[in-house]
Structure formats: C-alpha cells, structure tokens
Amino acid sequence: MADVESPTPRLLAMRGIGKNFPGVAALAGVDLAVRAGEIHALLGENGAGKSTLIKVLTGVYAPDTGEIHLAGARIQPASPRDAERLGISTVYQEVNLIPSLSVAENIGLGRQPGRLGFLNWPALRRRARAALARLEIDLDVDTELGALPLALQQMVAIARALDLQAKLLVLDEPTASLDEREVEELFKVMRQLRAGGLGIVFVTHFLDQVYAVSDRLTILRNGELVGEFLTAHLGRLELVGKMLGREVRDEEGHRAEGRVGMATGAMMESTAPLLEARQLGRRGAVHPLDLTLRGGEVTGLAGLLGSGRTETARLLFGLDQADGEEIRVRGARVKINSPRAAVRQGLAFCSEDRKMEGILPNLTVRENIILALQAKRGAWRTLARAEQEKLCAHYIQALRIKTRSAETPIKNLSGGNQQKALLARWLATQPEIIILDEPTRGIDIGAKEEIEQLIAKLRADGVAVLFISSEIEEVVRNCTRIVVLRERRKVAELAGDEIELRRLLHEMAGATPAHE
Amino acid sequence: MKWLAPPLRMSEPRHRVWWKSPAVWPLAGLMLLALVNLKFNQEFFSLSFQDGHWVGAVVDIFKNGSTCLILALGMTLVIATGGIDLSVGSVMAIVAAVAAARLARGDALPVVLAEGLAVGLLCGLANGLLVSWAKVQPIVATLVLMVSGRGIAQLITGGFQVRIDSADFNFFGNGFIGGVPVAPVVATALFLAAWLWLRRSATGLFIEAAGDNETASRFAGLATGRIKCLVYAVSGMGAAVAGMLAASSIKNANPLHDGLNLELDAIFAVVLGGTALSGGRFNLLGTYLGALMLQTLTETMYYDHVPSAVAPVPKAVLIILVCLLQSETTRRWLGGLRRRVVA
Questions:
Q1: CB-based contact A360 B216, cutoff 8 Å
Q2: CATH class entry, domain A252-346+431-515
Q3: Of A27, A151, B103, B242, which one has the greatest count of Cβ atoms within 10 A?
Q4: Rounded-to-integer distance, Cα B141 and Cα B84, Å
C-alpha cells in the first residue's frame, strides 16, 4: 500500500502474526502498525480475526508466528497483566468492572497501594482522581460504579486502563452499548488522548464512527490482512468491498450466479404473501420497517454486522416484543409475543447462536430433532417412539447428518452436523415460513453447499424463507428479494434484476455517488 | 411438500447398557449396606408374618422411607429444571396442620384429602410463579416458604399440636394392604404413575429440555415458564401427600416438627439417584433407589445401636462416597491410578 509509509515513528508494529487453532488458521501473516498520536481502526466482519489479533496483542494468546514490537523493543506479553505492565491497556466491549464497588476501588483494583494487606485509602483515591483528571472527567471517586450511566462506566474503565504508564490503548467495540451522545463523549476523550501522544486501536463495526474518529485503518478478512489505509483516502464503498472481499472494480462479479432472482422474478407479485409485517420495530434495536415474505421466495436480510438483521428476526419470531407492530400471517392479523405463538403460526427460526439458542447439549440427536414438533403438538399428543425414530432416520439420511446414532448426545457432533440437526428440528414442524440466521456460519464448505441446496428445495416447495447471512455472495446467490438494513434501518429493497453485488454493496455501505 | 414428508426407514439399534444408568450408584450403595448388615447384623434380614402383616427391618425401611420417597419424586422434577425446592418440609407441616384442623372440625375424609392436596398445590404454585414469572432464584423463592411455612402451620393450629382421632385418616400411616404397609404402596404407586405420565407424554422431555438449555428450549417453542411452574406445583402436591402420611402415622400434627429437614433428605436422594443439580436429565428409578438407600442407612444404624447423636456422621460419609463415585473427575483419577498401579 502506497500510503502506509509515513515519517511518524511506529509505536506498535505487529508483523506476520499467525495463530492456529485446532482445524482453523485464525490468523495468517497479519500486520498491524500503530503510530503514537493516532487512532487506528481495526475492521473486519465476523471471523475476520479481529478479536484473535487483539488477544495476541494483549497476551491472552501467544502467536504461533510473527513478532510484536512496542516503542522499538520486541515484546512477548504472557498475560493481559503482563501486557498492561508493558504499556498496552485494554477496554473491552462489556464493561468488566465491579458495579458494587466505588469508582476509586475499581480503578485501583488489583494494584492497590498499601502494604501487608492493608489499603492506603488516601493514595487510592488520589490516584483515581488523577486518572480521571487525565480524561478531564469530574467525578466523585467514592460513588458506587453501578450507579453511573454506562458511558461514564466506560470512561472509568478507560481511566483504569490508563492508570498505568500506558503507551497504547485498545478499545474493543467500546461503543456497542452507547447512544449517540455518549459516543460523542467517548470520541472527545479519544481525541484528547490522541493529542497527548497515545496510540489507540479502535475496534468497531460502525462505519460512521470509523470516519468520524479514526486516522488510519487496517482491514482483516478471514484471518488475513487486506491492507492498511488512510481513512480519508478510502471511500465507503471501497471499504465495505474490502471488508467483504469484493473489489468494487470487479464489474463482472455482479449478480454472481443470479439465476435465482431472474427465474422467479415474474411470479413474485402473483403469490399471495404468507407473512406481512408493518411497522415492525423496537426502541434501541431496530427502527420500524415493513417486511413481506411470500411462499416460494427467499428474502435476504442484508447489512453489515450490527445493522439490525438478527434483531429484526427476533422481533418476527416473538423473542423480543416489538412496539406497535402489525403482523399478518396468511392475511389474518396475529399477535406473536412468544416463540411458542410463532411456531403455532407456522414459523421456524434457526438461530445464529447454535450453542446458546440452538442445541440441548446433553439430550440425544433424536430428542433435539423432535423437540420443536413435539412442542408444537403439545405434551399430550406424543409422537410415538417409532415415529420419532422414523423422522430422525429420514433427516439423518436426507441432510447427511454424521452421527454414530440418533441416540448420541448432540454435543458430540461437529458444528456443521449440529446445525443440520437444528435445521431438521425445524423442517420436522413443516414450517411455512422459516427464518435462517447465519445458517452457514462456522461450518465447512461441503455442509454450506448442502444447506444452500436445501434452501432451494424449500423454495421449490413453496416455503417462505428469510435468509440472513454476512456472506454477501451467499445472499446474492440465494435470494429472490433482498431487504437491506443499515444502522438499524431498512434502507432499500432489491428484487429481480436489481439484485447485483455492486448495487447491494452500495446500499449496505450507504455510499452516495459523491463518495466514490 | 415432498421434502418435508419422511419416507419409511428401519429404526436404528439403541446403544444403551444397563450399567451405564445413573441408577447403578444408589444400587451399589444399597448392596454395600446389605453386605455390612450381612457381616455384622444378620437379624436385619429377618422377616416374619405377625398379626396379619409382615414385620422386619426391610418393611420398616419402606414404611419409614415413604415420606422421603414422595418428596424426592417432586424434587427430582424441580432439580431437573435446574431449580430446587427447599419448602417441602414446611409445606408438609402446613398440610398436616390443615388436615388435622379440618378433621377436628368434622369434615369428611375425601374432603380433607382434597383440601390437603389443594393447599399443597397452592404452595407449589406460589413457588413456581416466584421462579418462572418473577424470576426469583429458586433457592431464595422456596426459602421464603421454608421459613414462613412453619409459622403458617402454627397459625392454623393456634400454636399447638393437634391430635388426630380419625381412624380412617390414620389408616394411611398405620394400616396394611395385603400385609404390606399402606404408605410405601402409595409412594410406589405415585412413582409408577409419575413415570407413566412423564415418559408416555412428552412432559418428561420438556422438563429435561428446559433444564438442559432453557434459552434454546424457548427458541424451540416450549413454554418454559409453564414447565417450571408445573414442577413446583407437582413438588407441592407431593409435599401435601407426604405431610398427610406423616401426620397420619403419628396420629398428630406438629407444626414445628413435621417434615423437619426432610427437604435435605429429598435433595440427597435425588443427587444419589444421579440427577445432577445443574438440571437436565433426570432418573426416577435412581431417585427411588436413592431414597431407599438413605432410609436403609438410617435403619442400619438403628439396628446396630449407633447412638442417634452420632448417626449423621456415617450417613454423611456414605453420601460423600457415592457422590465421589459419580463424579467424572474422581472416576478419571481412579482410572489413572489403576493404570499406574497395573503398570
């Protein structure tokens, strides 16, 4: 990259960092260079390797290859504490302080002044005050932390991080739970620290924030370095293209294999909608939007991480309560206020969080598969054991679920096979509307293809599919209609010929033509 | 929808072996106790037929263990959802007090039984709603009734013990059916009924699912709140039956003493039976054997003239032994030890 070279000396240089986990290379040959007095954004979609890189930097993981230099000296942080001692301080997404302790105690936690187990309280308070003063924050250090608003708690976390002789501050998605005004506050502090000569690594997935505050940025994708850029020189569209691994110049790449959209373009308007949602939204999660799902159609929900895709699905399935929405299923107005109600309306929802929201780890594959169907039937209309086994045998064969038997606990299966078993759980309920949230995440290529084939089959069977994926090619390939979300708002709906990569990228990035 | 309709296919072989069942551990404990008695106290096994019914230590075990059996039945389900019910002992006292007071007033026996059950159900529902609706932690939610329950029972009896003179009512705790005490027959019948209900309907699966991963169960369309409410209600009803049996056998309702500390025995029985406190899978047969094992231990010490003040110590030792045997870590450690010794 031409614009990488700069006269400012490098504060942090990570070179050729590689890290392997059993079966996956989480990082391969990644560089990260941060100069003193610079805010450096670290960008990438899910699985890009951002958090692994941060963990290598802060001593949680030891890298398999590569070197880390801080202020000219090679370092090998062995633990987060060690990293702190070396001058690398980290503030995590979730404020991990102790709410029931005072501000001063939280700042001094684990490095209390004093001796023989006795605390030197005046010194503790003095240090806390000094740390806050550095951020120009006026706060009573005896206040209980939990009583403060989240943004201030975040500031306390930063103050705590800077209490030591920090040279580099790592902010890992610090804005995820803040509102706009609070984000501004945080930016003010960040700019101030930058002026003081601190290097800041800023992990976020809000593009507006990247442009608002960062000087330079590094993009990762699939554990590899895409490149380092000056923020001012990189347009939004280019940025998103690089994050998703699609070059904007790639003209022929549009509508990769767009048969799906073409073939069904004509019939779309003729099918009656299976599900219509009007003004579906929830304060703080997603702005009210309209959504129509038709039988035989795959509707994609596209958007960058944090754009409100999963939130929308959760509202639709009754997992969160929407404010003042109107939902019609097959034309009839219904109230969906729990997953149970949704299932009874013929909906199915395959969650992106397989472990927490999907599998019942200690129950068998059979029990996991029949659960939703049995729940739909109620406790008394029991599926006979023979019927259960028939059903499981069918899906184990049809979806090629690799398991020793239907009576194996599902936790013993690989991720892809667990995912297929969960799909089987929902297919067994014969849903008319199925929501697939990242159904291909974390599973191997072969399983991915099988799931895409399955989606095509469902469409042919007249099922309405709502498909959520961060793999943009997947969305373009499989969907007949795409609803684009950006910053928790519906910004566009593409159908038929409009479905092409370039157009989709445009909408996702929110790039105006002037930006290019 | 051709894709969704499954064609016929042969079912798979099941991979289940009896010795992998968690019920093996309390069974092993029972065997161990039997061996101890065989060595030191063979009188323990004598069984005779007197006055038209069986007499012997084994009969005593079943008779005296039946309250714990019934409590442990409800407790198994509560623990399977990842909860705990500390209030059962106090609910026993409340129900005993209600039954005694109603009998003294001259209510008919079926009415009294129904009233007792209704009070138990109410107590259970109160616990269930606190846990499922108000999201209070089970240990706290049921502690409330555990502590206040004895006060409520005293309120009902006016602070006194109440004697029970109804011969019909006292039959449950003292009578015999075909030479066998009534109480264990009731307890065993309840276990069989519960087993049929839980395993023939999908209720057992729903309880296990909710205990294994509550969030995922909710995602799959289960009404997890209702399931939780249900298990506490069942536990409350079990406590009601146990309370009436206990009062009937001593022909007396004692608000301060009925069911005292029995919640702990019930929890022990469940844990011995291989149902993990973390929730998920439950095993009714294991619970049944676990409760029997606890009672066998008590009777053994009684027959061997261990002073009652010392009795809790061997009990604790045996419990910890069985729990250690169940623990994955100790088993791995023992396995490693054996390999090292062999090598």
A1: yes
A2: alpha beta
A3: B242
A4: 9
CATH fourth-level superfamily of A2-249: P-loop containing nucleotide triphosphate hydrolases (3.40.50.300)
Q: Which residues contact B200 (CB under 8 A, 6 or more apart)?
A: A382
CB contact under 8 A, B6 and A349: no
If you measure CA to CA, which chain B residue comes closest to A345? B221
Element (H, E) at B197: helix B182-200
According to DSSP, residue A364 is labeled B
Q: What angle do CA B169, B158, B152 make, to 5 degrees?
A: 85
Q: Which residues of B touch A363 (CB under 8 A)?
A: 205, 208-209, 212, 280-281
Q: What architecture is domain B55-325?
A: Orthogonal Bundle (1.10)
The pLDDT tens digits for B104-121 are 999 999 999 999 999 999
- CATH 3.40.50.300 occupies which residues in chain A? 2-249, 252-346+431-515
Decide if A379 and B206 are in contact by the 8 Å CB cutoff.
Answer: yes
Task: Choose the closest CB to B9 out of A361, A390, A408.
Answer: A390
**Inter-axis angle of helices B224-250 and B167-174, nearest 10:** 100
Is the C-alpha dihedral spanning A404, A409, A412, A414 positive or negative? positive
- Report pTM: 0.74
* Tokens (6 digits) for A366: 């059979």
Please identify among residues 368-407 of chain A the ones whose CB lies closer than 8 Å to any CB of chain B. Answer: 371-372, 374-380, 382-383, 386, 389-391, 393-395, 397-398, 404-407
B172 vs A25: CA distance, rounded Å:
69
What are φ and ψ of residue A180, in 5° steps?
A: -60, -40
Residues of A in contact with B2 (CB under 8 A): 461
Residue spans per domain, chain B = 55-325
The distance of A476 to chain B (nearest Cα, Å) reads: 24
Question: DSSP for B210-253?
Answer: HHH-HHHHHHTT--HHHHHHHHHHHHHHHHHHHHHHHHHHHTEE
Strand residues in A120-172 grouped as ranges (E): 168-172
Enter the ipTM.
Answer: 0.85
Q: Contact at 8 Å (CB) between A445 and A389?
A: no
∠ CA A204-A207-A208 to the nearest 5 degrees?
A: 110
What is the per-residue pLDDT across B119-171, written as a single tens digit (0 to 9) for each?
A: 999 999 999 999 999 999 999 999 999 999 999 999 999 989 999 999 999 99
